[in-house]
Design brief:
The chain is of the alpha+beta class. Helices cover 39% and strands 17% of the residues.
């Protein structure tokens, strides 16, 4: 039996939002907001209603998932799927409920989505990755480590506050800290 056309469509056929032309602004690192888990729960329910049969897991990840940790006020959501190509069927339903599809955005075999406010600021990121991918396991491992190691979480918060004045380098400058933690976890 042939696969549905939406599964076999070429990546070029998918509606990928253009890269933002807005100038990069310094990231805002805010004190932990106790509403973040509730915002995740709301988004989770909407995602499950829209594409639940096509996904295997859904996790709150990133700094907003770590109690007490300062963070950019953007809810990061990790969705696990068995097969990246088959998961393309989730793109249109997620777009219908407000998720802007951004393609892989530098991470192979990732479907990446954002939710934006009218002013263009992002409120949510959705990272859809295969369950057996390195990026999937690293995101969960890093979150779990920060949730269970307050000293590491404090060090990470300090680094993020220091880097917030460097908008173009914020993501890249956090990478050595993240890689060090992940390297330690592999030992």
């Amino acid at each position: 039996m042939p696969e549905p056309e939406s599964v076999t469509a070429a990546t070029d056929d998918l509606a990928v939002a253009p890269a933002s032309d807005a100038p990069e602004t310094p990231p805002i690192v805010a004190a932990h907001n106790p509403a973040w888990p509730h915002l995740f729960a709301q988004a989770r329910a909407q995602i499950l209603q829209a594409v639940g049969p096509h996904i295997q897991t859904i996790h709150h990840v990133g700094s907003t998932s770590v109690p007490g940790l300062a963070a950019k006020p953007i809810i990061d959501i990790l969705v696990g799927v068995h097969d990246w190509n088959a998961a393309r069927v989730t793109i249109p339903p997620l777009q219908r409920i407000g998720w802007e599809f951004r393609g892989p955005r530098g991470i192979p075999r990732r479907h990446y989505f954002v939710i934006r406010l009218p002013d263009g600021s992002r409120t949510h990121h959705l990272h859809m990755l295969e369950l057996n991918s390195t990026h999937y396991t690293n995101m969960l491992a890093f979150r779990n480590h920060l949730q269970t190691h307050p000293t590491a979480a404090t060090q990470y918060a300090t680094l993020k506050h220091r880097l917030a004045s460097r908008p173009g380098a914020y993501q890249q400058a956090k990478a050595p800290f993240i890689q060090r933690i992940l390297g330690d976890l592999r030992r």
